Amino acid sequence: MSSEFWSFRNGTGEMSSDFKILKQLGNIKPLQEIQTLQQAVQTVSAQTHSLSVNERARSQDFLALYNMTIDSKRVMNELNISTSSHLRNLDTKTSNQLSNLESRQNTTAADISNQLKKLKTKTYKQLIKIEQSQNSTAADIITKMEAKETSDNLTMTMVQKQINKNAERVAMTAHPSTGGTMANTIMKFDDVKFNVGITNLLSYKTTGKFTCEHVGLYLISASVTSYTSDSRFYISLNGKFISLTSIGSHSGYFEHTGAVTINQKLNLNDQVWLHAFGSWYLIHGLVSKLAIIKIK
């Protein structure tokens, strides 16, 4: 800007000199050209003055920038001094902390080593005790297992016997094949419709007596039909009456049915039969029946 200013100033001076020379030489030119030249000189002067003002403004800006640079440099110096001091203090503090930490670590390592030795000794003793206890326990377990095996074998034998016993199914359903007058005698229900587990069936049909071949609990059920008034019958076990059933008491010719059901434990070779009490007429066929079932 300074260079341009001096260039414009020199040009203005040259133009003023040229104008004076032309005026002295008496070179006659039109008045309009002279006025134009004067306006150009005035314009250049105004531009020169503007450049001068701008130059002074720029000088002020450069001065302010210079002052800011000086302030920044001062602040940086102060910051460097403060940072250096802080770093020295931090370095000293860190060095002391590291020394203390190293000392504590050495002490802790020694304590851990001692504790590990104590733990190793204690663990070894406990392992010896556990081994001794396991040996004793193993012997006890073997003895108990042998006893348990013997007990289980006995139990299984008993269970198997019970299963076999429970599997002994015995059942029979029979009807009298012929009717007639019964008078204090054994009632033969010789028409056997169903039976299982009975090997002496022929003896039963002949005698009318059911003979027990498998010990157990039995259900004995009888249903007898007659048109005789005051007719009755017993269930006999080995000749001993264990049940009395009345068929009916009436006047006239009517059919009546008497029924009974009992539970009875039967031992081997026990005999069960139906016995007529008094004298009355038994109606045969499906209306009269005897059922014997082993339930347990």
Describe this structure in words.
The protein has 296 residues and is an alpha+beta fold. Among the domains are: 2-79; 170-294, Jelly Rolls. It has a five-stranded antiparallel sheet with strand order 4-1-12-6-9, with no helix packed on it. Strands 3, 5, 7, 8 and 10 form a five-stranded antiparallel sheet that branches. Strands 2-11 form a two-stranded antiparallel sheet. The longest helix has 136 residues, at 31-166. It is elongated, with a radius of gyration of 71 Å. It has helices spanning 2-25, 31-166, 201-207, and strands spanning 171-175, 180-183, 186-187, 191-196, 210-211, 216-226, 231-237, 240-248, 256-266, 271-277, 279-282, 289-294. The mean pLDDT is 84. Residues 163-286 form the C1q domain.
